[in-house]
Amino acid sequence: MQVIDIINEAIADGKTRFTFELLPPLKGAGVDGVFEAIDPLMEFDPAYINVTYHREDVKYVERADGLLEKRIVRRRPGTVGISAAIMKRYGVESVPHIICGGLSKYDIEDALIDMDFLGIHNVLALRGDNVRGEHVFRPQPDGHGSASELVRQIVDMNNGIFVDHEVDKCAHSQFCIGVAGYPEKHAEAANYETGLKHLKEKVDAGASYVVTQMSFDNAKILEFIRRCREADITVPIIPGIKPFSTKAQLSMLPQVFHVDLPQELVNEVEKCSDNKQVREVGVEWAVAQAKELKKAGVPVLHFYTMGKTDNMVKIAREVF
Ligand code: FAD
């Protein structure tokens, strides 16, 4: 089933559902950890499950002569395989993420063909971030520079147009495509309006829905939805919520994701004496956010779990 149909059903039923995002296991780890994270959430009937995609990382290793050697490492491969394993085990739709960073159009096409063979018909199309240590995003030779180009490639494939234009007749893929939106502006966007213009490009290219970057402030999420509608972005918008979970996130989340933390949340986290307490504060904050967004009528909420779901179970019990 396509995610857009699931979203539209939720809209028709007036019932807010949820999805959560998981990471593929670290290379060498088995799939069991992922299943252990999902198992306790299945009783709450998630609408679908997202699986992130991770580009190559850069590591510097000291050599015997004291010089540093640059090595490329891939820590979390397996997005497509894990997505298929989730669908097979739980009978729930999975949504693998796919990125431009580090991949050529051919690599992307290969991944999409694998997904299609495995019965995966949903994908979240993203540009991805810069390689660690680089300040600008550099597309792969023969790759894409923005998510809208990636969306166009997926739409082309749905229409039977492959990268090398060598296929005349084919079984058409039917990917439903989601894209990312930024209630607090993407760090590289010149301003809010420009960010919306680029979001509209992705939707006009063929995306069926938008998932937002995490925000801890519902006023910003609802304002973003309002501004999208004003900008004629009419597809469903799925707000992203991150249950706050460690003190280190007070500086890490603003640095990495370019989001503001409301002062009230910062105060509550600072009062905590350990991360167990921080996790409880995070659950309370996420529950309050989710309840309010549910009241506002959003069809699906997207939870960023970073792979650990004990807090998500508490949230699901309270809200869904
Ligand atoms: P784009 O839409 O291409 O936008 C990137 C920047 O370029 C924006 O500032 C935009 O305004 C600008 N831009 C776009 N088009 C143009 C244009 N034509 N001309 C000039 N500027 C332009 N990253 C991963 O690596 N793996 C994941 O699994 C992953 N999952 C994510 C899930 C969600 C829900 C979200 C919100 C983000 C996720 N990310 C993931 C992070 C994402 O890859 C980064 O935020 C990335 O920096 C931007 O991706 P994008 O798809 O929004 O890019």
Give a short synopsis of this structure.
The protein has helices at residues 3-13, 32-38, 79-90, 105-117, 147-158, 192-205, 218-230, 249-257, 263-271, 275-295, 310-319; strands at 17-22, 48-51, 57-62, 68-73, 94-99, 122-126, 176-181, 209-214, 237-241, 300-304.
Description of the molecule:
With 320 residues, this protein is of the alpha/beta class. The protein has one domain: TIM Barrel (Alpha-Beta Barrel), CATH 3.20.20. Helices cover 41% and strands 17% of the residues. The chain contains eleven helices and ten strands. The chain has helices spanning 3-13, 32-38, 79-90, 105-117, 147-158, 192-205, 218-230, 249-257, 263-271, 275-295, 310-319, and strands at residues 17-22, 48-51, 57-62, 68-73, 94-99, 122-126, 176-181, 209-214, 237-241, 300-304. The strands form two sheets. It has an eight-stranded parallel beta barrel, surrounded by five helices. A two-stranded antiparallel sheet has the order 3-4. Strand 8, helix 7 (218-230) and strand 9 (237-241) form a beta-alpha-beta unit. The chain is globular and about 60 Å long. The chain starts with a helix and ends with a helix. The model has no long low-confidence stretch (mean pLDDT 97). The site of flavin-adenine dinucleotide has 24 residues, from strand 5, strand 6, helix 5, helix 6 and strand 8. Flavin-adenine dinucleotide binds at residues 52-53, 55, 97, 99, 124, 126-129, 146-148, 180, 186, 188-189, 194-195, 198, 202, 211, 213, 240.
